[in-house]
Write a structure and sequence with these properties.
Blueprint: H1 2-6, H2 8-27, E1 32-33, H3 35-45, E2 48-51, H4 55-60, E3 67-68, E4 88-92, H5 100-109, E5 114-118, H6 121-127
Parallel strand pairs: 1-5, 2-3, 2-4, 4-5
Length: about 140
């Protein structure tokens, strides 16, 4: 106990430092994944990459083999995704615009078991120098 009393400033600094390191992890939602995890899910779990951006954004560059369904068309095109219900689904959006929140909610309500948002969207994919296909 005397150690704590004698070194209170050190203890407080250590706690604050640890809290600052953990803050980004606590702040993001549990279904967000980074590009490394996304690539692992694609390569080892045969994940579906679902791009929910607008058509012009998708055509400007997208993840290879991704399926494109704009977020506002998702409900009417859900039948196209039925065979992926038990597989991981990675939602791709434009950085800063999280349409995946609505898209993820729709998929979860329709019993898709493993829905993930790519943290940082397509911009994070590009920044990681991962392959991009342009139409």
């Amino acid at each position: 106990m005397t150690f704590l009393q004698n070194n209170i400033a050190l203890v407080v600094a250590a706690l604050m430092s640890g809290g600052m390191l953990l803050w980004p992890l606590l702040r993001r939602s549990g279904n967000e994944i980074d590009t490394l995890v996304a690539v692992q899910l694609i390569n080892y779990k045969d994940a579906l990459v679902l791009d929910v951006r607008e058509g012009s954004e998708y055509n400007a560059g997208h993840v290879p083999n991704s399926k494109h369904i704009p977020a506002d068309k998702l409900e009417e095109r859900l039948h196209e995704l039925e065979k992926f219900k038990s597989k991981p689904v990675i939602l791709i959006h434009r950085s800063g615009v999280n349409a995946t929140g609505k898209a993820g909610s729709i998929l979860r309500k329709k019993e898709f078991a493993h829905v993930h948002n790519l943290q940082g969207g397509i911009d994070a994919w590009r920044q990681a120098n991962l392959p991009i296909v342009k139409k």
